[in-house]
Amino acid sequence: MFTLWCNISGELTAVPRGHYHYIDMTALLCGHINLIIASVSSHPAVLVDSSSSLLLSLLLAQIPLFTSAVPAPYRRPNVVHELDRLANQTKNLRQITADLLKEHAFETDPEQHRFKSLPLMNNRASDINSLEMRPTLSQLHADLKSFEHHFAWLSRASRKHHHPALPKLGQMMSLIKSLTSMLEHQMMRVDAQRLSPPSPSMPPPPPSQFDVLQSSQELLLQFRLFCDWAQRVFSVLSTKSKMSAVQ
């Protein structure tokens, strides 16, 4: 399908509809129209005795085609939307963690302090409203990377001793990696720094499946606390961002 187009000298040519260069095309059309209007203003008789009237009509008719053909500009997801996604992903992780704890629960509390380098979950609910975006995201990221290292250790131990929860553990590790990637993207958007904590020190390989279960219980309990806290933090930061946007 072809559309009539005029060059700068006023000659009409046929151009395939799909070959438009959309950038500044409307401005070019308006430039041609201005030339014709200027010519008509200085020589009124030209409008009657030449094809300028037809040319002007054709150019005016093309403007809606170009303006409608220009694609809408891409809008990046806003901060609130991304924080809500982080909260939902953390909620999913918390649920999987709770399911694993139910499936392999002990009648007594597991032996604690096998992991010396786990993040300390000593946050207070009263502090949550005073948290600032950048340092909070940086700390959550550092804690999440630490848990990622610990679960990688647990995954290796589980494969060796044929841990029955290995499939669900693999699903959880995949979600942790996805959450880490989402969090890193958000940190880049708000210019939050990545912390560089020392590499976590792991306990020696567990000698039996019972020891693997004990280790997994301790790790899952701590990670559930982290998910509880992180989900609340993301939700509070999202609410604060919404309030800032309307002010």
What does it look like?
This protein is 64% helix and 4% strand. With 247 residues, it is mainly α. It has a two-stranded antiparallel sheet. A hairpin with a 5-residue loop joins β1 (2-6) and β2 (12-16). The chain starts with a strand and ends with a helix.
Quick gist of this model?
The chain is mainly alpha-helical. The chain has seven helices and two strands; from the N terminus they run ββααααααα.
Order of the strands making up the biggest sheet: 1-2
Determine the structural class based on helices, strands and strand pairing: mainly alpha
| Element string (H = helix, E = strand) | EEHHHHHHH
Shape: elongated
Q: State the helix count.
A: 7
| Biggest sheet details | 2 strands, antiparallel
Total strand segments: 2
Q: Whole-Å distance between the termini?
A: 50 Å
Low-confidence segments = 1-25, 45-49, 72-76
What is the average per-residue confidence, as pLDDT, rounded to a whole number?
A: 75
In which range does the helix fraction lie?
A: 55-70%
What is the strand content?
A: under 5%
Radius of gyration: 32 Å
What attributes does this structure have?
247 residues, mainly alpha, disordered N terminus, elongated
Which SSEs are present, and which pair or pack?
Layout: E1 2-6, E2 12-16, H1 25-42, H2 46-49, H3 52-69, H4 79-103, H5 133-161, H6 166-190, H7 209-246
Helix pairs in contact: 1-3, 4-6, 4-7, 5-6, 5-7
